[in-house]
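Subject: complex prediction, re-run

Hi both,

The earlier run crashed halfway through, so I resubmitted it with identical inputs.
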Amino acid sequence: MLRTLFERIGLIAGGFPGGIHPEQSKLTADMPIRDCPLPPVVIMAVKQHIGEECTPLVEVGQKVLRGQKVARAQGYVSAPVHAPTSGKVIKIEEHPVPHPSGLGRLSIFIEPDGKDAWDRSLEPWPDYRQRDVGELRERVRICGLAGLGGAVFPTFIKLVRDQKHPIHTVILNGIECEPYLTNDHRLMLEQAEQIVSGLDVLMYMTGARHGVIAVEDNKLDAAERMHEAASRLGTAVSVHVLPTRYPQGGEKQLIQAITGREIPAGKLPMHIGILCQNVGTTKAVHDAVLLGRPLTERVVTVTGDAVPNPGNMNVRLGTPMRFVYAQHGLETFDGLHLIHGGPLMGERLPNVDVPVAKSTNGMLAFTTDVMVEAHRRPDPCIRCGHCVEVCPARLVPNELASLCRQDQFDKSQDYGLFDCIECGCCSYVCPSNIPLVQYFRYAKGEVGKINRERIFADLSRQRSQARDERIAREKAERAAKRARVKEDVSESDGGPSSP
Amino acid sequence: MNMLISSPHLHSGDSVRATMITVMLALTPAVIVSVYLFGWLAVLLIVSSIVCCMVLEWISLRMMGRSAAAIGDGSAALTGLFLALTLPATTPWWMVLIGCFMAIVLAKQIYGGLGYNLFNPALAARVVLLISFPLQMTTWIIPMHAGNPVINLYSLQDCAQVFFFGIKSLGHSIDAVSMASALGYVKTEWTRGIAVTDALRGYGYNYLDAFLGREAGSLGETSALALLLGGIYLLARHTVTWHIPFSYLGTVALLAAIFSTINPGRFAPPMFHLMAGGLMLCAFFMATDPVSSPVTPAGRLVFGTGCGILTWTIRTFGGYPEGAMFSVILMNCAVPLIDHYFRPRVYGQGLPK
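This time it finished cleanly. Structure:
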């Protein structure tokens, strides 16, 4: 209480700077995770992570087992895709994915056969501590793991043993600071043992000596449960309860809240000896290593004032969202606002026929009542500075936004455009309701476009330069040749003068 | 219906209008004190100033082809209230009109309207009035409770006559009803070679009266207590941060404490400075005007400290007895520069690699 007060008046820096205290609205905190029934069809997009798209490995008509790889990773930053249940591939074509653009992506449609038979080609490794670290990393890679907190960065990439940057601490992110979402909360309550096993795998793989399980004080039951479960790992693992504040679950913010350290610009957590993983991902690491099961399902919070029976559900990847909403009593979507992810960082759903993906931590449905403030027309900026106070990246959002609005992209980068984590605190508190984050996203996109154009222009210039040089060289060579011939001729004409 | 594409999809519910209303609520104690001290004169000034500012805002918005609905944000009404609170009780109607025009049209709308003004509109107007009409703007009427000998301030008829036709229309000279402010008295006495300590004694200065507001001054500036209450409310509601009021008042108090300790005959003590003139109003309400003050915490500390140094300097060495509003206006000019140089260090930047 006193601490929050001090934080509010800015006397002490509580962990990380800025942040907000939105209404929690965790309607589903007491709802146990239910299993979602198998839908009539599952739709697996070939890209559900950050990085390169995968290539389909199966053909139409082919029978697949649950956990069978159906699309192969391409490039380094990529994660393969597996059949979420057993059945038959019925078609492979573009289908919309959960992205506000509503654009499609190549997807593999599988008709479940109802047997839900596992592909058992991956051997369970309960004796993982006897395994080679490289072997384990390969297991995590081929099981298609990506950060389930919502960012979906391929997990294996972070699991490196680098002599120059040894990892000393693994931080498990059980913060779940987004309002409404409770999937991590329930997972910690119901599957604490598996999460702790996953943590042990991660600690073994990275060679970390400490494990920290970070939980906010709005879910003390989960903290207690994790504490119990972690006791078997002894003193190496501790549970940290942090005062609830958004966006504490951001990787940079969480590391700062726990260690007091910032990650230097352009560096990664591993450069300061830290690995940070979401609790859901850690549970998936347990499944992949100890059980030999690739990523085929995840826990999703289905909630919002428009959902008649909100709850947490264990959903197969690829299940159409319409089917999942229907399990919670929501069948008509007219005039509703559907959001993929949390209300503060999630994206608007283009339609309800998109499938659940690896990044789907929440599916929200709001009536206009909840959104009325967010949809108010913007007023001019009155420079109140609230955005500056709440920005966890310590930016000056109001000035940055005005630079972005004037398309001053170079200057906006000097003002830290790319240090913005898009947490939305600035927009949330803005009394003028200015869509600051929207300006930053726009500017980032434009800068990316300009850079691509610049690269293209550079290439074209290099090509044309090379061509000019070649022509000049050829011309020079021809001239030299001519001169030589001429010389030869004149020499033969004049004859050798010397004896 | 899906207007909002980008996250966040929730909003705190805060609004410009709510901010303005909070500030007006915070000014309520000062308004009550002003009505207690100056009766109907206070009511007439406050109402006319608010109405006039709103009408001018409406006209400006219409002339610029903007939505006149913006009048509902409350910023013009607040400017009107601010302006009235900085005026002496005997300000005539036409001076109110000029002040409102200065505030709304010249200091605010010409710059681009809400959010774009360089100066605090009410203070800019007050400074223009002070420089243009120095006599009227430094004539302090004896408050009601102190036994004003000639005008019954609680009579609407008398007050309306003073407001529209001046004190002379009641058959009195201004000198019969006015008294010097403590700041003005000390300054005049000092120019006559009388030490500050003696001047305060001669004035009959009393800290309790100054704190409660039983003294001469502009409508809303007299009671340090009322302004302090409002200021605490603003801090508690998080409408303003502590940086500007604390650094402003702290700097004035510190300078006064140092110099009055060295030479009490020449320099007034800190408590006198804190409770005199428009300092409290400026520190909590004028210097913290969001539009014309810096946005970063460090910038706000610099801004407040600058205001404090200027206020104390003008009061002690300047030609005018009071320097609070001049210093805020001067520091307003420095805001773009302060905002540029006192940005916080961005996360992860400037660390050893």
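The two ends of chain B are 48 Å apart (CA to CA).

- K.
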